[in-house]
Amino acid sequence: MRSGAGAGEGAGDGGNGDEGRRREIHAGSSSGSPNLEWRFNQTLKSVQGLLKGRTFPGKVMLTRKYEPSNVSTSHEHSEEFEKSTFENDLDPSYHSDNSSEVEFQISGNTVRNSSLQKSQSIPPKGKCLSPDAQQSVSGARATDSARVAKFTKELSANSVVLEKLRELAWSGAPPYMRPNVWRLLLGYASPNSDRREGALRRKRLEYLDCVSQYYEIPQSERSDDEINMLRQIAIDCPRTVPDVTFFQQEQVQKSLERILYTWAIRHPASGYVQGINDLVTPFLIVFLSEYLDGNMENWSISDLSGEVISCVEADCYWCLSKLLDGMQDHYTFAQPGIQRLVFKLKELVRRIDEPVSRHMEEQGLEFLQFAFRWFNCLLNREIPFHLVTRLWDTYLAEGDSLPDFLVYICASFLLTWSDKLQKLEFQEMVMFLQHLPTENWTHHELEMVLSRAYMWHAMFNRSPSHLAS
């Protein structure tokens, strides 16, 4: 996902040094005592209601080392705490400042994690610092005052430590800080504060030159392929996020058209592929939020000067380029990168939830029939648009590891409806998966998806033989 100056610092660290997000997996022995079986059954009962389906491969045993001061150590308190430990760790509305440790034992392997930093979400601790933050759904971790202070400290440094910023952003960035956070995570903005503004000015001027050279030319100077590509983009722009009125503004669609056409001309290996239009929309909303206040539905791009619109378009163009640099084969001929991810998703679902996998296979449902669009549009079309930017905080924090982690997110997303899917026949299943009931989702449901994805990634990613056919 990185290319160019500034992207190399931390962009590919997701699989190495991120101890706050990666749990060490090592061999462990499984006890067969009756007490262990009782604890497993109790834990499983607590978790089943929360995760709504078969989400744990093998036996799961939870223990937590916990030594708070001035807390009763009675048997009743200990038992209640032990049974609720895992639910609290996955509940975005729960937070504890006490240091703690969680152990999972899965088929002989032990997974340790210190305080599940990435999968917890902390509720707001006071007044949000901006109107945008105030609109954030209660329980979204990005509005927590302590985390806002950490973001402020990192972003105000002379040289931003990208790995620390990634760790913070994984669980959500404050909305009004998001533009700067995203530009830094993608390597578009320099981590060095002294160089940042100058570099952004140069890149924005370069984008204007590209638009002048490739887009603002007479139709007679375009090749037939370029004419057809521009025509397809012009058709797709009005179809982009049709349920959000902001994107129906003619000037917004023109901005999308300029960004997409310029990108496609400068990336001839793929050119324009349907679905890339969806990938511009989060960038457009985030970078416009620096200039437009209030609810997005009330925004009017005509309130902005041409210079501001050009700066926003340039930021969208370069950030789209950085994003797609990390997944180039997703949009080349036959899109082999996406096909590879669909295959991995099928294998992962088979390992996590064998009954669902078997039922889908018996009904003749192919994962390509629904999951191809998920990967092609990065799930943008599957969840309410107001949650997309939160999801993308995690995407961009993953850096070069995004394609790999996206498989786990899609598995968690699919298995949200594990029980439902097992009751459907082929035609019903196809219709259900193409029109998923996510319209009323809040941050809570999205955080649950990310929590499960994180947990499964920790379980399986360093044990690829688990997913071998």
Automatic annotation (TrEMBL):
Residues 28-39, 95-122 have a biased composition (Polar residues). InterPro entries: Rab-GAP-TBC_dom, Rab-GAP_TBC_sf. Residues 1-17 have a biased composition (Gly residues). Residues 74-86 have a biased composition (Basic and acidic residues). PROSITE patterns: TBC_RABGAP. Pfam families: RabGAP-TBC. Residues 172-399 form the Rab-GAP TBC domain. Residues 1-39, 67-141 are annotated as: Disordered. This is TBC1 domain family member 22B-like. One of its GO terms (molecular function) is GTPase activator activity.
